[in-house]
Amino acid sequence: MYYLDPGNIELLSSISISTDQGESRVAGIAFSMGEAPAFFVDELQKGFANGFDVKSKGGETSVAYGNRTYVIGGACEESALSIGVRILDQSSGEWINPTVLGTKPKPSKGHSAVLLGEDRILITKNGSSADDFAWFLEVDTQYVRQQKKILGTEVVAWSKGVRGCSEKPVVISGPSGVGKGTLISMLMKEYPSMFGFSVSHTTRAARAMEKDGVHYHFIERSIMEKELEDGKFLEFASVHGNLYGTSVEAVELVADDGKRCILDIDVQGARSVRASSLEAIFIFVCPPSMEELEKRLRARGTETEEQVLKRLRNAKTEIDQGQSSGIFDHMLYNDNLEDCYQSLKELLGLDGTVTAAPKSATKVVDLPMDHSLTKIDNKIIINSRTPELEKASTNMIVLDVSALKGGAPGRTRGLDIHTMDSFLDGLSGITH
Ligand SMILES: Nc1ncnc2c1ncn2[C@@H]1O[C@H](COP(=O)(O)OP(=O)(O)OP(=O)(O)O)[C@@H](O)[C@H]1O
Ligand SMILES: Nc1nc2c(ncn2[C@@H]2O[C@H](COP(=O)(O)O)[C@@H](O)[C@H]2O)c(=O)[nH]1
Fold first, then answer.
1. Which fold has domain 170-348?
2. pTM of model > 0.80
3. Is the ipTM above a cut-off of 0.95?
C-alpha cells in the first residue's frame, strides 16, 4: 500500500522487514520524493510485491522460503564466535543443524536480513564497520548444491560482501625452471601497488632463502589434507611428489588489498582454476629448449640431482599439455629474459609509461546502528530506525546488488552503496 501526498510522497510498504529489536513490523519507509522520478515510485511498488517472509525475535531472524525456514543468529554451539544458523523443515517440523561452510561473520549487536533471488540471504550487521556490514548466507547456490552432494549433509555457506570488483587474476604456468618466479618478481617489483602474489600452500621443505608466509605457506601433509577436505582450497595438485595448493583466502587477500592477483601454479592447477568459477587470464611460459631448461634448473642449485631429473621428466608432459590443452590464453617464450618480460607486460596492458593505477576513492557511507531492509528488485533500501533520522532521505542508504560476483567459499564482490540522495540524483542526472 502507498500514499501519494502532493509534494511529499510517503510510501508505506507492506513487506516484512527485520531487526533484532523484537517482533518484525510493517516497514514504514518515509522519505521525500519531491524530485524522485515516477518510475522509481513504480519500482518501489513492484519491490513490495516480492513475497518472502522475514521475522525477528530475540536476536534471531527467520527467513522463510519454500518449505524451509532459515533461523539466523541465536543459540548455536559456535554462537560466541559467529552468527549461528539453523533450518526448520516445515514439512516434517524437524530442526536441522546444517554444515556451515565459508568464513563466518562474528556476532553483532543485531542484524537485518533479506532474501536475494532464490539462493542467498543478505545479512546486514548493526553497528558494523563499512568493511564488515554485509554478509551473504548461501542456501542454494551452485557451490552449496555441490557441497551437499559431496558431504551428503544439509549445507549453507557464508560469504563476506565486499564493495567493488577486482581485476581478473593472472595464472602463470610452465615447467619448473622456465622462469615464472623470475618474471613474477620483476612484475611485482615494478608495479608493487598493482599486483599481489597468491601465496600457495606446499608440503615440500622450504629452500634456504624461502620464508614461510611469503614464498609459500609450508605445511605438513596431514594438515593440508584436512584443509583440503574442509574445502579451503581453490585448487591443488601433486607436483614433483609434493602437494601444492591455492587457498581461497590467498586469492581473496590480494583482492582485498585492491591488487590484481598473480598465481604461479602448475598445469593441473591451471586446469582446475579454468574449471572453477574464478575468471582469470591464463599464461603458459615455454623454455627455448629442454637443454636450456636443464641448464637453468641446475644453475639455480635448489634441487637434488634426483629432483632435477624428476622435474625435467615432468617438464616434457607439462609443455605438451600447455601447448595443446586449450587451457591457456597466451604463450610466452622465455629465451631472452628482458624480451619475455616486455611481452608479459604488453599482454597485461602495461607499457613503460604506466605507473600504478590510482586507487579510486571509495566514499565511506556510515550505516545506521539500527536499521531495516527493503528489497526493490536489485536495490536494497537500508532504512534508519533511529526516530530522528527516520524521515530524512539523507539517512537512507541504497545497496545495489545487481552486479554481484564470486561468493562462497570466497567473498561476494560487486556491492555498490549510495546514499538515497546521491542515488536519486543519479536517476535524474543531477551532478554536484
Ligand atoms: N630468460 C632467462 N635466461 C636465463 N636464465 C633465466 C631466464 N629466466 C629465468 N632464468 C633463471 O632460471 C632459473 C629458474 O628460474 P625460476 O626460479 O624463475 O623458474 P620457475 O619457473 O619459477 O621454477 P619453479 O617452477 O621450479 O619455481 C633462475 O636461476 C633464473 O634466474
Ligand atoms: N597446482 C599448483 N601448483 C603450484 C602451486 N604453487 C606452486 N606450484 C607449482 O609447483 C611447481 C614447483 O614449484 P617449486 O616452488 O617447488 O619449484 C611449479 O610448477 C609451480 O608453478 C599451487 O598452489 N598449486
1. Rossmann fold (3.40.50)
2. no
3. yes
